[in-house]
Amino acid sequence: MRLFLLTALTMTAFAANSVLNRLGVGPGHIGTLDFAVVRLLAGATVLGMLIVLRARAGRGGLAPGAPGRRIVGAGSLLVYLFGFSLAYGALDAGVGALILFGTVQITMFAGALTLREAVPARRWIGAALAFAGLLWLFAPGTGAALSPVHAALMAVAGAGWGVYSLSARGSVDPLGATAWNFLFAAVPGLLAGAALALRGVDADGTGLGLAILSGAVTSAMGYALWYAILPALGAARAAVSQLSAPVIAAFGGLVLIGEPVTARLAVSALMVLGGVAFASLPRRR
Description:
Blueprint: H1 2-25, H2 32-56, H3 67-87, H4 93-114, H5 121-137, H6 148-166, H7 174-199, H8 205-233, H9 235-241, H10 244-256, H11 263-279
Helix pairs in contact: 1-4, 1-8, 1-10, 2-3, 2-7, 2-8, 3-6, 3-7, 4-6, 4-9, 4-10, 5-9, 5-11, 7-8, 10-11
């Protein structure tokens, strides 16, 4: 139950990133690249402060860990962050989350098979049910506009996030690993920020606030928690659990962006959450 609740909290944070990004970028409060850079730097700042405070309290070190793991983590994080923000220049929150986590699922299942992780039949069945629910939610006739270019950008972001999640396997210091991933990624992020500053930051106070909230809270804290629970979930179950995020994002869009409540959405939510629950059942002795 504790693992389930922590996973639900993490998925809510992931879904909140979609809604916050769309709230900032959609109405023009902030540019797509500006949102990504501010989000990255805010997350790196908060996480850096946390590991320094932790070290001063004697509860952990400041070593970044294996350089190869940090490079993979930072690189895949950059691919995810920038692809994510650019895609939300045209995609709705729920549609973008569907493409993102659908691609994440494919990437992580492929990683599980490559790493020869055991994938029980119930997990395949649960994944199929959850993914069918997502297809039903965004099937033709729902009125959801889809730009091929922006959909492709979100798919690239999903692949980046899948690799980022797989790189968390075996992490013994979730907070430290997440912090150093952000800090490594912040180096090219600062360069991008400098370039944006030269041409003028395309943002108002609302846009900057949403980007900072996304970086400092739902990204920094959410990703640290994700790194903490991933070893217990395993690659396959983690892939399935993330399919709940698009449904949460769609409901967030209903409340905050004004998308209509439909029977299709309710049925899809039941299918996705039911599939996730079935896939997460413990193996019988």
